[in-house]
Amino acid sequence: MFLVPRLRLVGAVAALLAAAVILGITAAGRLVAYQSALNLSRSPLAEPPPPGPAGTRHSRRVTLVILDGLREDVSRALPTLAALRLGGADLVADSHFPTLSLPNYVALLSGVPPVWNGVRTNRHPGPVPVDHLFARAHDAGLSVSYLGDRDLSLGKLFPRLDDITLAPRSGSFARAASRSADLNVVLVLYPDDAGHRYGARASEYQSAALAADALLAEVVGAMDLGRDTLVVVSDHGHTRHGGHGGLEDEVRRVPLVLAGAGVRPHAHGVASLVDVAPTLAWLLGIPAPRGAHGSVLVDALALRRDERALAIAGDQARHAWVAAAVRDAQRRDRSRGERTRTERLAWIAAGAHARGAR
Hints:
The protein has one domain (62-322): Alkaline Phosphatase, subunit A (3-Layer(aba) Sandwich). The protein is 49% helix and 13% strand. It contains 13 helices and eight strands. An eight-stranded mixed β-sheet has the order 4-3-5-1-6-7-2-8, with helices on both faces. The longest helix is centred in the last third of the chain and has 53 residues, at 305-357. It is globular, with a radius of gyration of 25 Å.
């Protein structure tokens, strides 16, 4: 005799669960739409002035290795990175908010932080709306390549790549790295995958960092650091329990190591990820990306006094244009905000008047 009430209860619970699922799907869809809306299809730095002067080429080939998700403190225990630090430049770099991968890949390769490079989430469809290293290299007649363990997102963000290679297994990395272009970007995702799954305090994260370091050793083995330059960096770190995106020290601080041709041995210091693009451009003897906020890392490079002065002067001229462009964009944003507020107040007043007239 209790069957009917129980059936009603089961039906009510099922209905509530179905409603919760629908609301969850709707909320998730809105979250995705909101995240996508944070990206910019156009940046205020999209049409900067012509590129600045090029310097002398200091390196036959430049390779940038991004060890995704690698914390700076954990990087200190990696043998390949330790060897590179001994003979090269050992810097600590700041990632940019939001400390997510795609926004900071673009910061690394354009010199423009996420707030202005247009890529503010990991859902940007690409291509990027700002000038970048691959474009500067192509315009100078240089070849560019990408090598990754499994991810193709850089190819979507930067379509001007001459070669894209995925090498998911150890051993294939060395063969792929030996087919080097003038500018090479290598992306290894092992630390980030483990950080998300286990957290940075887990032994699995340490093991993933060591596996990434082993792939880095394969890249180093395919290079001649007497003529080539290697730059190793991370886009962000991970919290102890896993995850990133905020401004915690363990997420924001990342390793930045330079070794090989053009690098000043035993240099130390601090930097930002936006400094990487102007520095790589200087090593290749090409202009920096035209909207780059960063600077050539002159203290980490083996420069003559006149070269140092030329690099600093070029940075200062570019920074002056960037600052003016940013001020103009902020002024336009304030003007649009004021117009929007005025329009809303007018609608509110009109509505109140209409209600009072009834």
